[in-house]
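lol ok so funny story. i was supposed to be doing the assay writeup but got distracted and ended up predicting the structure for this chain instead. priorities right. anyway since i did it might as well share w the group, maybe its usefull for someone
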Amino acid sequence: MSLAGIAGLLADRTRAEFCLALLDGRAWTAGELARHAGVTPSTASEQLSRLVTGGLLTEERQGRHRYVRLAGPQAAALIEDLAAYSPSTPVAAVPPRTPRNLRESTRLSAEARARTCYDHLAGHLGVSIADAFVERGLVADDAGLVVTRTGQAWLGDLGIDLHALKGTRPTIRTCLDWTERRTHLAGMVGAALCRQALERGWVQRIGSGRAVRVTPDGDQAFQERLGIDLRTDDALRP
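and the output, tada:
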């Protein structure tokens, strides 16, 4: 689809809200998205069909239920980058979104602390991990972000074989965080780190949204493996 076509799809508030919700990397039903955006099921169905036709979403059906998800990492990166972008204001100075009610305020606060950005960790937690990777020499940014030998050994100790990661996306890249206005780690390495954190119980999802919470096991793991003391980090406290 052309740039104008993609811009047209995301210019609608409801369609944009659907895409932001789907940044949690999971599949949602049309009904769930309708309730999330506060629109009727018929409106949700119509707008989701446009997003699927435009290539930003994919769908699958199970019985009478229709599930949709983002079309892939590239679509997720596009949505996240646009959420952090302002054409008239420097990125670092863009104000955070204003919550419409207490429930949304609570959700946005939790997402700012720690969340998934499609399939990698974001928010203050994600940025802290990225900082630790740089400080410990696990990645280098001399001519594009690369994993160092030290980083390969660190990942291997976590059970992530860098050479076994396959796909068309970059091995590792930065992703601008829309709440922190700094970068977290994405790409196949970022996805593998997020997967390990979830599988090992270092982080747990909060409800049906993108927010995650760091568990006591996660506190210990991030401290021991990356030197991140999340227990004394005010930005990660509820």
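The longest strand covers residues 57-62. The CA atoms of residues 137 and 150 lie 7 Å apart.
back to the writeup now i swear
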